[in-house]
Amino acid sequence: MTTYAQLTQAQRYQIHALYTSGSCQAEIARKIGVHRSTICRELRRLDGRNDYDPQKAHAQAVGFRVTAHNNSRIKGTLEAAIRVFLGIDFSPEQIAGVMKRFFGISISFQSIYRFLKRCYWYGDELYKKLRIAGKRRSYIGNEGRHRKRRQAPVLNRISIHERPEEANLRSQTGHWEIDTVIGPRHASAILTLTERVSRYCILLKLRSKQSQSVIDALEERAFGLRTKVRTITSDNGSEFAKHQKIADLLQCKFYFADPYSAWQRGTNENANGLVRQYFPKHTDFNNITQEELDSVAFKLNNRPRKVLGFDTPANVLWGLQPFWLK
């Protein structure tokens, strides 16, 4: 973890001298080797050039830091745990949920955000461990967002409307959604599978977006998956044209969502969004190894989910205790 050092009293005297001589904040920051925002916060502490007293400012900073630490619930072992969980990509809400479910400690996610803000004010860049949300989605159909490539219709498809109620109601594990995440210029792709109840995901590297490539990727995982697959639901992409072979390979039923109805496969769409946190748009998947995909899937499957009562997908589907509890 990268951190800023606290301003020393000597640096505060430098700030005073430079600022009273007319130097701008950017120049002061450059000369004493800190970020411009540090200078901005420091000068805002005592309201301007004429009132800035470096000795008083230093005493105030030290006193406030001690008071803030003493008044905060987040210190010691709890602070250490929060830092660890942020380091493995948990959100403040997930951390709060885990602390209550597994450790019996009640703390709100708002308190964790306040802790991060306090860290920021004192030069600790812990906030950078937060996952960055993606771009706001447009609430229009896929046909309005992307120009669809002309492709041959998938033959012998079975509609999602014939799918068992157990799959629709998420009352039984074993019902999966399948999709592809595409690289730039449609030159590379990965296959994503997400189980509807547990949200457990599998990420597989594809040689191409051709249907045979999907079969080849699944063959390597078929033996371990068969006992956990009852149905699969996909969109109408040509990469799933050999859906009957997939069904035979995994010994399951294969269903297709309605055209332009991504909401019918919301579980997989959400999982793809989580994958994009690690592989942003314009990622060339030709340069990504299967080992890297497995590593990301491992993180996602061991991340607590609010929808699961802050249990993990791996534990719900396979009964595997999270590695961070061991």
Q: What string, H for helix and E for strand, traces the elements in order?
A: HHHHHHHHHEEEHHEHEHHH
- Tell me the total number of β-strands: 5
* Helical stretch tally: 15
Query: What share of residues is helical?
Result: 40-55%
Largest sheet, spatial ordering of strands: 3-2-1-4-5
Q: β content, as a range?
A: 5-15%
- CATH top level class name of the largest domain: Alpha Beta
Mean pLDDT: 87
Could you give me the name of the CATH homologous superfamily of the largest domain? Ribonuclease H-like superfamily/Ribonuclease H
Number of domains: 3
Q: Report the CATH topology name of the largest domain.
A: Nucleotidyltransferase, domain 5
Radius of gyration: 26 Å
Euclidean distance between termini CA atoms:
23 Å
Query: Tell me, what's the shape?
Result: elongated
Strand count, sense and barrel status of the largest sheet are:
5 strands, mixed
Structural class: alpha/beta
Unreliable parts: 133-148
| CATH architectural group of the largest domain | 2-Layer Sandwich
